[in-house]
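Re: weekly structure request thread

Next one in the queue (442 aa):
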Amino acid sequence: MTKTVIIGTNHAGIAAANTLLDNYSDQEIVMIDKNTNLSYLGCGTALWVGRQIDSYENLFYTNKEAFEEKGAKIYMGTTVKSIDFTQKIIHCENPEGTFDESYDKLILATGSKPIAPNIPGKDLKNVEFLKLFQDGQAVDNVIGQADVKNVAVIGAGYIGVEIAEAAKRRGKNVLLFDAAERCLPNYYDTWFTQDMDRVLSENGIELHYNELAKEYLGQEKVAAIVTDQGEYPVDLVINAIGFVPNNNLGKEHLDLFNNGAYLVDLHQQTSDPDVYAVGDCSTIYSNALQETTYIALATNAVRSGIVAGHNIGGTPLESIGVQGSNGISIFGYHMVSTGLTVQAAEKAGFKVKYTEFEDLQKPGFMKENNKVKIRIVYEESSRRILGAQMASYEDISMGIHMFSLAIEEKVTIDKLKLLDIFFLPHFNQPYNYITMAALSAE
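Done, posted below.
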Protein backbone atom coordinates (compact mmCIF):
# COMPACT_ATOMS: atom_id res chain seq x y z
CA MET A 1 0.00 0.00 0.00
CA THR A 2 1.08 3.56 -0.71
CA LYS A 3 0.07 6.06 1.94
CA THR A 4 -0.85 9.42 0.41
CA VAL A 5 -1.66 12.36 2.66
CA ILE A 6 -3.59 15.29 1.18
CA ILE A 7 -3.41 18.61 3.05
CA GLY A 8 -6.35 20.77 2.01
CA THR A 9 -9.80 19.51 1.04
CA ASN A 10 -11.25 22.03 -1.31
CA HIS A 11 -11.48 21.68 -5.12
CA ALA A 12 -7.91 20.54 -5.84
CA GLY A 13 -7.57 18.24 -2.82
CA ILE A 14 -11.00 16.72 -3.41
CA ALA A 15 -10.20 16.03 -7.09
CA ALA A 16 -6.92 14.34 -6.12
CA ALA A 17 -8.62 12.26 -3.40
CA ASN A 18 -11.45 11.13 -5.68
CA THR A 19 -9.00 10.23 -8.46
CA LEU A 20 -6.97 8.03 -6.12
CA LEU A 21 -9.92 6.48 -4.27
CA ASP A 22 -11.90 5.72 -7.44
CA ASN A 23 -9.06 4.29 -9.52
CA TYR A 24 -6.32 2.84 -7.31
CA SER A 25 -7.11 0.18 -4.71
CA ASP A 26 -3.53 0.07 -3.36
CA GLN A 27 -3.81 3.58 -1.92
CA GLU A 28 -4.25 4.50 1.73
CA ILE A 29 -5.65 8.04 1.73
CA VAL A 30 -5.49 10.50 4.62
CA MET A 31 -7.08 13.95 4.22
CA ILE A 32 -6.41 16.88 6.56
CA ASP A 33 -8.03 20.32 6.63
CA LYS A 34 -8.12 23.07 9.24
CA ASN A 35 -11.64 24.05 8.16
CA THR A 36 -14.76 22.35 9.51
CA ASN A 37 -16.39 22.05 6.07
CA LEU A 38 -15.20 21.02 2.64
CA SER A 39 -16.06 21.52 -1.04
CA TYR A 40 -17.48 25.05 -0.72
CA LEU A 41 -18.04 26.71 -4.11
CA GLY A 42 -16.84 30.19 -3.19
CA CYS A 43 -17.80 31.51 -6.63
CA GLY A 44 -21.43 31.18 -5.47
CA THR A 45 -21.00 33.39 -2.38
CA ALA A 46 -22.18 36.55 -4.16
CA LEU A 47 -25.22 34.71 -5.58
CA TRP A 48 -26.22 33.70 -2.07
CA VAL A 49 -25.44 37.07 -0.41
CA GLY A 50 -27.32 38.82 -3.24
CA ARG A 51 -30.29 36.42 -2.79
CA GLN A 52 -30.13 35.23 -6.40
CA ILE A 53 -30.22 31.70 -4.99
CA ASP A 54 -32.36 30.55 -2.07
CA SER A 55 -29.69 29.19 0.27
CA TYR A 56 -26.04 28.22 0.58
CA GLU A 57 -26.62 24.46 1.13
CA ASN A 58 -26.13 23.49 -2.50
CA LEU A 59 -22.83 25.38 -2.70
CA PHE A 60 -21.32 22.30 -0.99
CA TYR A 61 -20.99 19.43 -3.46
CA THR A 62 -19.64 16.69 -1.18
CA ASN A 63 -18.94 15.98 2.49
CA LYS A 64 -16.63 14.19 4.92
CA GLU A 65 -18.84 11.08 5.02
CA ALA A 66 -18.55 10.56 1.24
CA PHE A 67 -14.77 10.12 1.58
CA GLU A 68 -15.01 7.93 4.68
CA GLU A 69 -17.38 5.63 2.77
CA LYS A 70 -14.70 5.27 0.09
CA GLY A 71 -12.15 4.30 2.74
CA ALA A 72 -10.30 7.56 3.38
CA LYS A 73 -9.31 8.75 6.83
CA ILE A 74 -10.26 12.41 7.09
CA TYR A 75 -9.38 14.95 9.79
CA MET A 76 -11.40 18.20 9.71
CA GLY A 77 -10.76 21.13 12.05
CA THR A 78 -7.13 20.03 12.14
CA THR A 79 -4.15 22.34 11.70
CA VAL A 80 -0.87 21.12 10.24
CA LYS A 81 1.77 22.80 12.44
CA SER A 82 4.80 21.69 10.42
CA ILE A 83 6.14 19.01 8.08
CA ASP A 84 9.38 17.07 8.46
CA PHE A 85 10.11 16.43 4.77
CA THR A 86 13.21 14.32 5.58
CA GLN A 87 11.43 11.89 7.90
CA LYS A 88 8.13 12.27 5.98
CA ILE A 89 6.14 13.14 9.10
CA ILE A 90 3.34 15.70 9.40
CA HIS A 91 2.81 17.32 12.83
CA CYS A 92 -0.90 18.02 13.41
CA GLU A 93 -3.07 19.64 16.06
CA ASN A 94 -6.83 19.62 16.64
CA PRO A 95 -9.16 20.11 19.65
CA GLU A 96 -8.38 16.54 20.80
CA GLY A 97 -4.64 17.23 20.97
CA THR A 98 -1.51 16.81 18.85
CA PHE A 99 -0.61 13.84 16.65
CA ASP A 100 1.73 12.86 13.82
CA GLU A 101 0.88 11.39 10.43
CA SER A 102 3.48 9.75 8.21
CA TYR A 103 3.33 9.65 4.41
CA ASP A 104 4.81 7.97 1.36
CA LYS A 105 3.46 10.65 -0.96
CA LEU A 106 2.20 14.09 0.02
CA ILE A 107 -0.19 16.40 -1.85
CA LEU A 108 -0.22 20.05 -0.80
CA ALA A 109 -3.61 21.56 -1.67
CA THR A 110 -3.45 24.49 0.71
CA GLY A 111 -4.97 27.01 -1.71
CA SER A 112 -4.55 30.75 -1.42
CA LYS A 113 -5.10 33.38 1.24
CA PRO A 114 -6.63 36.86 0.87
CA ILE A 115 -4.29 39.84 0.56
CA ALA A 116 -4.80 41.87 3.73
CA PRO A 117 -4.08 45.60 3.43
CA ASN A 118 -1.93 46.56 6.41
CA ILE A 119 -3.62 49.88 7.15
CA PRO A 120 -4.82 51.52 10.39
CA GLY A 121 -8.24 50.30 11.48
CA LYS A 122 -7.98 46.92 9.75
CA ASP A 123 -8.98 45.14 12.99
CA LEU A 124 -12.23 47.07 13.49
CA LYS A 125 -15.50 45.13 13.44
CA ASN A 126 -17.31 44.95 10.09
CA VAL A 127 -14.04 44.91 8.13
CA GLU A 128 -14.42 41.59 6.32
CA PHE A 129 -12.72 39.34 3.76
CA LEU A 130 -14.25 36.86 1.32
CA LYS A 131 -12.70 33.42 0.92
CA LEU A 132 -14.16 30.71 3.13
CA PHE A 133 -17.79 29.76 3.75
CA GLN A 134 -17.48 31.38 7.19
CA ASP A 135 -16.42 34.66 5.55
CA GLY A 136 -19.53 34.54 3.36
CA GLN A 137 -21.65 33.89 6.44
CA ALA A 138 -20.12 36.88 8.23
CA VAL A 139 -20.69 39.24 5.29
CA ASP A 140 -24.24 37.96 4.79
CA ASN A 141 -24.98 38.49 8.47
CA VAL A 142 -23.69 42.08 8.52
CA ILE A 143 -25.43 43.01 5.24
CA GLY A 144 -28.68 41.75 6.77
CA GLN A 145 -28.51 44.33 9.57
CA ALA A 146 -30.88 47.26 9.06
CA ASP A 147 -28.40 49.87 10.35
CA VAL A 148 -25.81 48.81 7.75
CA LYS A 149 -26.55 51.20 4.90
CA ASN A 150 -23.20 52.04 3.26
CA VAL A 151 -20.93 49.25 2.01
CA ALA A 152 -17.38 49.80 0.72
CA VAL A 153 -15.87 47.11 -1.48
CA ILE A 154 -12.09 47.31 -1.85
CA GLY A 155 -10.90 45.80 -5.13
CA ALA A 156 -12.69 45.72 -8.50
CA GLY A 157 -11.59 42.27 -9.61
CA TYR A 158 -14.04 39.39 -10.04
CA ILE A 159 -14.91 38.93 -6.36
CA GLY A 160 -15.14 42.67 -5.69
CA VAL A 161 -17.46 43.36 -8.63
CA GLU A 162 -19.64 40.34 -7.79
CA ILE A 163 -20.00 41.21 -4.09
CA ALA A 164 -20.70 44.87 -4.99
CA GLU A 165 -23.62 43.66 -7.12
CA ALA A 166 -24.78 41.39 -4.27
CA ALA A 167 -24.74 44.23 -1.72
CA LYS A 168 -26.66 46.47 -4.14
CA ARG A 169 -29.26 43.73 -4.65
CA ARG A 170 -29.70 43.73 -0.86
CA GLY A 171 -30.62 47.43 -1.01
CA LYS A 172 -27.33 48.88 0.20
CA ASN A 173 -25.51 52.00 -0.95
CA VAL A 174 -22.33 50.54 -2.50
CA LEU A 175 -18.96 52.21 -3.11
CA LEU A 176 -16.45 50.24 -5.19
CA PHE A 177 -12.80 51.24 -4.75
CA ASP A 178 -9.72 50.26 -6.73
CA ALA A 179 -6.24 51.72 -7.14
CA ALA A 180 -6.45 50.84 -10.86
CA GLU A 181 -8.30 53.01 -13.35
CA ARG A 182 -10.97 50.41 -14.24
CA CYS A 183 -12.55 47.11 -13.21
CA LEU A 184 -11.34 43.62 -14.18
CA PRO A 185 -8.02 44.73 -15.79
CA ASN A 186 -6.48 41.23 -15.52
CA TYR A 187 -9.08 39.63 -17.79
CA TYR A 188 -10.36 42.31 -20.19
CA ASP A 189 -9.14 45.22 -22.26
CA THR A 190 -10.62 48.69 -21.77
CA TRP A 191 -13.06 48.24 -24.69
CA PHE A 192 -14.86 45.67 -22.51
CA THR A 193 -14.37 47.06 -19.01
CA GLN A 194 -15.82 50.45 -20.02
CA ASP A 195 -19.12 48.62 -20.67
CA MET A 196 -18.99 46.79 -17.34
CA ASP A 197 -18.23 50.07 -15.54
CA ARG A 198 -21.28 51.59 -17.25
CA VAL A 199 -23.42 48.59 -16.15
CA LEU A 200 -22.21 49.04 -12.56
CA SER A 201 -22.88 52.80 -12.60
CA GLU A 202 -26.30 52.46 -14.20
CA ASN A 203 -27.27 50.02 -11.45
CA GLY A 204 -26.32 52.51 -8.76
CA ILE A 205 -22.83 51.41 -7.73
CA GLU A 206 -20.54 54.36 -6.98
CA LEU A 207 -17.18 53.85 -8.70
CA HIS A 208 -14.00 55.14 -7.05
CA TYR A 209 -11.12 54.18 -9.33
CA ASN A 210 -7.54 55.50 -9.11
CA GLU A 211 -8.27 55.71 -5.39
CA LEU A 212 -6.23 54.02 -2.69
CA ALA A 213 -7.62 53.08 0.75
CA LYS A 214 -5.41 54.58 3.47
CA GLU A 215 -7.28 54.05 6.75
CA TYR A 216 -10.48 52.75 8.35
CA LEU A 217 -11.97 54.96 11.06
CA GLY A 218 -14.24 53.98 13.93
CA GLN A 219 -14.42 53.15 17.65
CA GLU A 220 -15.24 49.43 17.78
CA LYS A 221 -16.95 49.17 14.40
CA VAL A 222 -15.82 50.71 11.13
CA ALA A 223 -17.53 54.08 10.53
CA ALA A 224 -15.58 55.57 7.63
CA ILE A 225 -12.97 54.83 4.99
CA VAL A 226 -10.19 57.32 4.24
CA THR A 227 -8.58 57.22 0.78
CA ASP A 228 -5.95 59.40 -0.89
CA GLN A 229 -8.87 61.44 -2.24
CA GLY A 230 -11.37 61.76 0.58
CA GLU A 231 -13.31 60.32 3.50
CA TYR A 232 -16.56 58.35 3.18
CA PRO A 233 -18.99 57.11 5.85
CA VAL A 234 -19.34 53.30 5.69
CA ASP A 235 -20.89 50.61 7.89
CA LEU A 236 -19.17 47.62 6.27
CA VAL A 237 -15.90 47.16 4.39
CA ILE A 238 -15.40 44.06 2.22
CA ASN A 239 -11.79 43.46 1.17
CA ALA A 240 -11.49 41.78 -2.22
CA ILE A 241 -7.99 42.86 -3.25
CA GLY A 242 -6.91 39.42 -4.40
CA PHE A 243 -5.08 36.34 -3.18
CA VAL A 244 -1.56 35.02 -2.69
CA PRO A 245 -0.55 31.33 -2.68
CA ASN A 246 -0.64 29.74 0.78
CA ASN A 247 2.91 28.34 0.92
CA ASN A 248 3.44 28.38 4.71
CA LEU A 249 4.11 24.66 5.06
CA GLY A 250 6.66 24.15 2.29
CA LYS A 251 8.29 27.48 1.47
CA GLU A 252 11.54 26.63 3.27
CA HIS A 253 11.88 23.24 1.56
CA LEU A 254 10.37 23.48 -1.93
CA ASP A 255 11.27 25.55 -5.00
CA LEU A 256 8.95 28.53 -5.42
CA PHE A 257 7.67 30.63 -8.34
CA ASN A 258 8.26 34.41 -8.27
CA ASN A 259 4.96 35.00 -6.43
CA GLY A 260 5.61 32.30 -3.82
CA ALA A 261 3.58 29.48 -5.42
CA TYR A 262 5.08 25.99 -5.30
CA LEU A 263 6.87 25.39 -8.59
CA VAL A 264 5.55 22.18 -10.16
CA ASP A 265 6.17 20.30 -13.40
CA LEU A 266 3.48 19.02 -15.78
CA HIS A 267 2.92 16.04 -13.40
CA GLN A 268 2.20 18.49 -10.50
CA GLN A 269 5.44 17.27 -8.87
CA THR A 270 7.44 19.76 -6.79
CA SER A 271 11.22 19.91 -6.36
CA ASP A 272 10.77 17.11 -3.78
CA PRO A 273 9.81 14.01 -5.84
CA ASP A 274 7.51 12.69 -3.06
CA VAL A 275 5.61 15.96 -2.75
CA TYR A 276 2.97 17.19 -5.22
CA ALA A 277 1.22 20.57 -5.14
CA VAL A 278 -2.19 21.32 -6.69
CA GLY A 279 -4.62 24.19 -7.00
CA ASP A 280 -4.06 27.78 -5.93
CA CYS A 281 -0.86 27.05 -3.99
CA SER A 282 0.94 25.86 -7.14
CA THR A 283 2.01 27.04 -10.59
CA ILE A 284 0.40 26.06 -13.86
CA TYR A 285 1.48 25.97 -17.51
CA SER A 286 -0.06 28.61 -19.79
CA ASN A 287 -0.53 27.62 -23.43
CA ALA A 288 -0.93 31.26 -24.41
CA LEU A 289 2.35 32.33 -22.79
CA GLN A 290 3.98 28.95 -23.54
CA GLU A 291 5.52 29.02 -20.08
CA THR A 292 4.86 28.38 -16.40
CA THR A 293 2.69 30.96 -14.68
CA TYR A 294 0.10 31.36 -11.88
CA ILE A 295 -3.66 31.35 -12.58
CA ALA A 296 -5.88 30.75 -9.54
CA LEU A 297 -9.21 29.36 -10.80
CA ALA A 298 -11.37 26.53 -9.44
CA THR A 299 -11.39 24.79 -12.83
CA ASN A 300 -7.58 24.75 -12.90
CA ALA A 301 -7.54 23.42 -9.34
CA VAL A 302 -9.75 20.44 -10.26
CA ARG A 303 -7.66 19.55 -13.29
CA SER A 304 -4.40 19.77 -11.34
CA GLY A 305 -5.81 17.48 -8.64
CA ILE A 306 -6.78 14.86 -11.23
CA VAL A 307 -3.28 14.99 -12.80
CA ALA A 308 -1.53 14.62 -9.42
CA GLY A 309 -3.82 11.76 -8.40
CA HIS A 310 -3.09 9.69 -11.50
CA ASN A 311 0.66 10.25 -11.29
CA ILE A 312 0.77 9.18 -7.64
CA GLY A 313 -1.49 6.21 -8.48
CA GLY A 314 0.99 5.02 -11.10
CA THR A 315 -0.46 6.32 -14.37
CA PRO A 316 1.96 8.86 -15.90
CA LEU A 317 -0.13 11.83 -16.96
CA GLU A 318 0.96 15.31 -18.02
CA SER A 319 -1.13 18.44 -17.72
CA ILE A 320 -2.02 19.79 -21.16
CA GLY A 321 -1.78 23.36 -19.84
CA VAL A 322 -4.50 25.96 -19.47
CA GLN A 323 -5.72 29.18 -21.04
CA GLY A 324 -7.21 30.73 -17.92
CA SER A 325 -10.75 30.73 -19.33
CA ASN A 326 -13.15 32.71 -17.16
CA GLY A 327 -16.44 34.56 -17.11
CA ILE A 328 -18.54 37.00 -15.13
CA SER A 329 -22.22 37.99 -15.16
CA ILE A 330 -23.28 41.23 -13.47
CA PHE A 331 -26.85 42.60 -13.56
CA GLY A 332 -27.43 40.34 -16.57
CA TYR A 333 -24.38 41.52 -18.55
CA HIS A 334 -22.10 38.61 -19.45
CA MET A 335 -18.37 38.83 -20.19
CA VAL A 336 -16.09 35.87 -20.96
CA SER A 337 -12.40 35.69 -21.83
CA THR A 338 -9.57 33.24 -22.35
CA GLY A 339 -5.84 33.55 -22.88
CA LEU A 340 -4.20 36.97 -23.00
CA THR A 341 -5.64 40.46 -23.37
CA VAL A 342 -3.79 42.96 -25.57
CA GLN A 343 -2.42 44.57 -22.40
CA ALA A 344 -1.26 41.25 -20.89
CA ALA A 345 0.26 40.03 -24.17
CA GLU A 346 2.29 43.21 -24.64
CA LYS A 347 3.42 43.11 -21.00
CA ALA A 348 4.62 39.52 -21.60
CA GLY A 349 6.71 40.72 -24.53
CA PHE A 350 4.52 39.61 -27.45
CA LYS A 351 4.09 41.79 -30.51
CA VAL A 352 0.37 41.42 -31.10
CA LYS A 353 -2.47 42.58 -33.28
CA TYR A 354 -6.16 42.27 -32.55
CA THR A 355 -9.35 42.19 -34.52
CA GLU A 356 -12.75 43.08 -33.12
CA PHE A 357 -16.36 43.23 -34.18
CA GLU A 358 -19.66 44.41 -32.74
CA ASP A 359 -23.08 43.41 -34.05
CA LEU A 360 -26.47 42.02 -33.04
CA GLN A 361 -26.37 38.40 -31.92
CA LYS A 362 -29.28 37.43 -34.22
CA PRO A 363 -30.78 38.89 -37.42
CA GLY A 364 -32.49 42.27 -36.90
CA PHE A 365 -35.97 40.80 -37.41
CA MET A 366 -35.68 38.64 -34.26
CA LYS A 367 -37.59 40.16 -31.33
CA GLU A 368 -35.28 38.94 -28.56
CA ASN A 369 -31.89 40.26 -29.52
CA ASN A 370 -28.82 41.97 -28.09
CA LYS A 371 -25.50 43.37 -29.22
CA VAL A 372 -22.37 41.21 -28.99
CA LYS A 373 -18.76 42.37 -28.84
CA ILE A 374 -15.77 40.21 -29.65
CA ARG A 375 -12.02 40.81 -29.73
CA ILE A 376 -9.46 38.23 -30.85
CA VAL A 377 -5.80 38.81 -29.95
CA TYR A 378 -3.11 37.19 -32.09
CA GLU A 379 0.67 37.22 -32.40
CA GLU A 380 1.83 39.38 -35.31
CA SER A 381 4.62 37.08 -36.56
CA SER A 382 3.09 33.59 -36.18
CA ARG A 383 -0.56 34.80 -36.37
CA ARG A 384 -1.23 32.34 -33.50
CA ILE A 385 -4.36 33.18 -31.47
CA LEU A 386 -3.32 34.28 -27.97
CA GLY A 387 -6.64 35.35 -26.48
CA ALA A 388 -10.28 36.26 -26.96
CA GLN A 389 -12.88 38.35 -25.14
CA MET A 390 -16.65 38.42 -25.69
CA ALA A 391 -19.50 40.35 -24.06
CA SER A 392 -23.27 40.62 -24.38
CA TYR A 393 -26.61 40.55 -22.58
CA GLU A 394 -27.08 37.34 -24.59
CA ASP A 395 -25.51 34.15 -23.21
CA ILE A 396 -22.50 33.90 -25.52
CA SER A 397 -20.41 31.98 -22.96
CA MET A 398 -20.02 28.70 -24.87
CA GLY A 399 -18.18 30.49 -27.67
CA ILE A 400 -15.15 31.11 -25.48
CA HIS A 401 -14.46 27.36 -25.17
CA MET A 402 -13.69 27.23 -28.89
CA PHE A 403 -11.08 29.96 -28.42
CA SER A 404 -9.64 28.10 -25.44
CA LEU A 405 -9.08 25.05 -27.67
CA ALA A 406 -7.74 27.30 -30.44
CA ILE A 407 -5.04 28.66 -28.11
CA GLU A 408 -4.17 25.18 -26.86
CA GLU A 409 -3.84 23.89 -30.44
CA LYS A 410 -1.92 26.98 -31.68
CA VAL A 411 -4.62 27.81 -34.25
CA THR A 412 -3.94 30.91 -36.37
CA ILE A 413 -6.39 33.76 -36.92
CA ASP A 414 -6.56 32.82 -40.61
CA LYS A 415 -7.90 29.33 -39.79
CA LEU A 416 -11.03 30.98 -38.34
CA LYS A 417 -11.90 33.01 -41.43
CA LEU A 418 -13.81 30.24 -43.22
CA LEU A 419 -14.60 28.08 -40.20
CA ASP A 420 -17.83 26.08 -40.57
CA ILE A 421 -20.17 27.98 -38.25
CA PHE A 422 -23.84 27.11 -38.69
CA PHE A 423 -26.58 29.72 -39.03
CA LEU A 424 -30.12 29.71 -37.63
CA PRO A 425 -32.03 32.93 -36.78
CA HIS A 426 -32.82 31.58 -33.30
CA PHE A 427 -29.10 31.55 -32.49
CA ASN A 428 -27.01 33.81 -34.71
CA GLN A 429 -26.51 35.72 -37.95
CA PRO A 430 -25.47 34.32 -41.35
CA TYR A 431 -22.35 36.49 -41.12
CA ASN A 432 -21.43 35.35 -37.62
CA TYR A 433 -19.54 37.83 -35.44
CA ILE A 434 -16.72 35.30 -34.95
CA THR A 435 -16.37 34.92 -38.73
CA MET A 436 -16.60 38.69 -39.26
CA ALA A 437 -13.91 39.40 -36.65
CA ALA A 438 -11.60 36.82 -38.22
CA LEU A 439 -12.24 38.10 -41.75
CA SER A 440 -11.42 41.67 -40.73
CA ALA A 441 -8.03 40.69 -39.29
CA GLU A 442 -5.11 42.39 -41.05
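Residues 116-241 form a domain with the FAD/NAD(P)-binding domain fold (CATH 3.50.50.60). The mean pLDDT is 96.
Next request, please.
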